[in-house]
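Below is the record:
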Amino acid sequence: MNAGAADRALIEAALGDALRQDGVPGGHYDLVADYPLRGGKRMRPLLCLAACRLHGGSPAEALPAAVALELLHSAFLVHDDIEDGSARRRGLPTMHEVVGTARAINVGDALSALALVAIAKGGRRWPGEVAGAVTAEFAHLLLRTTEGQAAELAWIAAGRYDLGDADYLALVRDKTSWYSALHPLRIGALIGSRGRADLDRLNDFGFALGAVFQIHDDLENLEATSTYGKDVAGDILEGKPTLPLLHLLRVASPADRALVLRSIGPRGEGPPATRGTIVRDLIEHYGSLDHARESAGALAGLALAEFRHLFGGLPPSEALEFLFDLVTGLRARTHPRVFLTI
């Protein structure tokens, strides 16, 4: 079993233990376990354990933090689905569609609370300064992620689409990269090195990795197949400022730009399926998919260069192979005609 598979097995077992709670009426903990047990890539906890390994630690040391990252991810998803009005998550109805908004909000809050419990348990086994630093990293993760989400929701509410790629990447850094890559790497390195690692050296790598992940998510929402687990073209109907949409609004003719603005967002005109088709066709017509793929390619190149800079002097290991495969795998999924070599 390679490091990725072994670490995934550790994560699944520890996640099951964290979710094995009872004593609250109404099936509360069955609901709390729903999103985490629907599966997922487990990218965040796997990154945390890989970084721990690469900085001299064992995966067991960072396991409580890895579990906390996955629980927070599920908490964010429950709340995001409410904020976005989404109907499907991982192939099934969203939490609020099943039990209502009030109970779904409570489930998200409970997942956040269980994440804090996991961090508290981990703090008992980490040196005092490391435990304090890990707590600070998690606090920063929560702050930046909610700030990023607030910015996106404010832009949607105000109909702000006069945004460039730099604006998009600044948003992605806050709402995606910090919690999806930067903090998982930093926390794993912090624990594995016993607080000795220079965490800021990981920032460019983590930012680029998280941004490629987000652009892939933007593209997947537009190019979804029948196996897609979320709302197809949901980003269009929500009016999210994705990279392809912002590019389209910059380059489209005045008439087509006006048509797009009438079609997107919660106040869009016409049947949802028709609106989604109109905008997707224009995104394809104006080369906005290619623009997003090229941007992802540039960011994947940055991630690969940072990977070599950070870890090129280390002996081969399964943790290194996992990180490399993650970078190149995201690149291939976003732009399958291009391949990277180590």
Residues 128-158 form the longest helix (31 residues). Residues 336-342 have pLDDT under 50 and may be disordered. The radius of gyration is 20 Å.
